[in-house]
Structures are given as C-alpha cells and as structure tokens.
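Hi R.,

As promised on Friday, here is the backbone we talked about, encoded as structure tokens. Could you run it through your design pipeline when you get a chance and send me back a sequence?
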C-alpha cells in the first residue's frame, strides 16, 4: 500500500467483504441468503444476489463437468455426516436413502436473465462449503486491488489465493502438507503468483469406526463418506475453481479426477493416496516443487491444509 492509512482502509474493507459474503453463503447462519433460499425449496424461483448467483453458476458448471461428483445440493447428506461425527455413529441406510432423494444438481435451475434460482424439490438444501472460501479469497483480492494493493496473499481457512509476487521475488511460497500417515515426509513447496491453491483432505475432520476411516468429504452420488487416506491439491487461476475442483477430484479418484482437471485451462493437480503398496503420489500440470531447507522471513511462506476448516 502507498501508506499506512490506505492499508488500514483496505484491510477493513476486505474483512467487511468477508463478513458480507458469510451472511450470503453460510449454511450455519439461519438468516443467510443461502439458508433462506434452501427454505424455499419446492417453491417458485427466487431472485438472488449477484454474489450468490455467480457462486451457484460456477458450482453448477463444476457439477455438470464432473458428472455430479461435485454437487452443492448435497446439504441433506452433509448434515447426516456432521451428526455422525458428533455422535460417533454411522448414518443408517434408510436415512441416507431419504436424504439422497433431495440431492441432485439437475434439480437446481438457474435463470441468468432473471437472476433467479429454483430448487425444484421440497427439502433440498444447498451447501457451499466446497466453494465459498475460494470465492471469498477471489473477492478479497479484488477489494485490495481497488486500493492499488496487488502484492497480496490471501489465506481463507486453508484456501489460498495470491496476486503479484512480493518485491524482488518471483512468487509466493506455499507449502503443501504431507498426509498424516507420513509425519517425516518433506513438506512440498510451490511458487505461485496470480493463482489459487486448495487442498481437499481429512487430516482432522474424519470419523473412525470399526477400523474404517470415514472422511468429511462426501460422494453426493452415493451419500457415503470417502474412506481411507487421501489428499488432493489443485492449483487454478481462481480460488472458487481451485476449491471446487479439489473436492470434485477427491471424490472422483485419481483416474477420473485427473481427466476432470485437464478439462480446465490453467488447472493442475497433486494427488496423494494410501494404497496397500504404500503412499502413492501423482501430479499433472502442477507447479514444480522447490527444494528448500527452512523458509526464512525473507521468503514469505504459507501452508495449505484443510485441518482447520469446517466440514465440506
């Protein structure tokens, strides 16, 4: 920023923008625009704000291109698995089947001309947990750019978006945490500018019952939580895209997940999974990892992880 006063104004406006978006997109706030839209499911189309429409439209794009592996109508299923983690008990088959009847991105119809959203089935609930933070990061970059501040790293609960690099540097250092299974594995670091990065994983948010590890990431096609250990990191040009694609690729698995990422220009993927043979890693169009000893204050570094996020 040109001066401290401008920096303070920019910071206040950025946090105000985040709070504004929270009141639009949160499924935890009963008064949010998203919650009001969900309560109108089965009713007529509802005119929504520009922000909400943009997020819904991008989400539907990812849903169509992933054949439903990503689906923001997954709200009823997400609530079942949140309850399961609190009670340490799996949802029963009947509850999952009933919730699945209310899930399906085809039943969310958007009208760009009227800027309306229509939830066609009663009981539908939207969950933007897999795109909301990425969109918020994008919007904060826009706010700060309006104040002439473009050398920026925005970290929204683990989803990171960056603008121009710090002075005298080629980019921002972002560290990708290894799986919990490999505590001695080296932290992998990439150099980014004008990009976003997001990881879909379950380092803390998971449920273990009968020796099976159930992730907080849900397959909206089956209503079941993913099992086992995996971490999927996606780099894209925008935060909302990196955020949503990381979840979609995690659900699809390595083969179909990689096919999905290749359909999006500028997107890359780093995939880590536990298999019987050990920890397997794959990557495609992902930034080159750097060899670092220990980052110093002269090399700004952020760590990308999902352990501090609410459930998706």
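Update: got your reply. Pasting your designed sequence below so it's all in one thread:
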């Amino acid at each position: 920023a040109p001066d401290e006063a401008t920096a303070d104004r920019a910071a206040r406006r950025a946090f105000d923008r985040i709070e504004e978006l929270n009141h639009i997109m949160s499924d935890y706030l009963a008064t949010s625009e998203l919650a009001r839209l969900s309560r109108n499911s089965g009713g007529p189309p509802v005119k929504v704000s520009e922000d909400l429409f943009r997020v819904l439209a991008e989400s539907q794009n990812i849903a169509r291109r992933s054949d439903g592996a990503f689906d923001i109508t997954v709200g009823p299923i997400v609530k079942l698995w949140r309850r399961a983690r609190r009670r340490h008990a799996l949802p029963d088959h009947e509850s999952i089947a009933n919730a699945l009847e209310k899930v399906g991105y085809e039943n969310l119809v958007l009208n760009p001309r009227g800027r309306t959203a229509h939830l066609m089935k009663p009981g539908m609930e939207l969950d933007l947990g897999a795109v909301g933070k990425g969109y918020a990061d994008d919007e904060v970059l826009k706010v700060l750019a309006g104040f002439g501040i473009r050398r920026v790293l925005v970290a929204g609960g683990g989803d990171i978006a960056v603008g121009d690099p710090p002075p005298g540097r080629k980019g921002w250092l972002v560290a990708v945490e290894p799986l919990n299974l490999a505590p001695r594995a080296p932290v992998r670091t990439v150099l980014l500018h004008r990009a976003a990065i997001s990881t879909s994983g379950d380092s803390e948010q998971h449920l273990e019952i009968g020796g099976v590890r159930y992730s907080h990431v849900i397959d909206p096609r089956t209503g079941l939580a993913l099992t086992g250990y995996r971490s999927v990191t996606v780099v894209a040009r925008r935060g909302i895209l990196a955020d949503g694609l990381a979840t979609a690729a995690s659900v699809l698995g390595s083969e179909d997940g990689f096919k999905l990422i290749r359909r999006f220009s500028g997107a890359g993927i780093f995939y880590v999974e536990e298999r019987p043979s050990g920890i397997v890693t794959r990557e495609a169009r992902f930034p080159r990892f750097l060899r670092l000893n220990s980052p110093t204050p002269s090399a700004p570094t952020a760590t990308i992880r999902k352990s501090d996020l609410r459930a998706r």
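One thing I noticed while checking it: Residues 248 and 275 are 20 Å apart (CA to CA).

Thanks again,
M.
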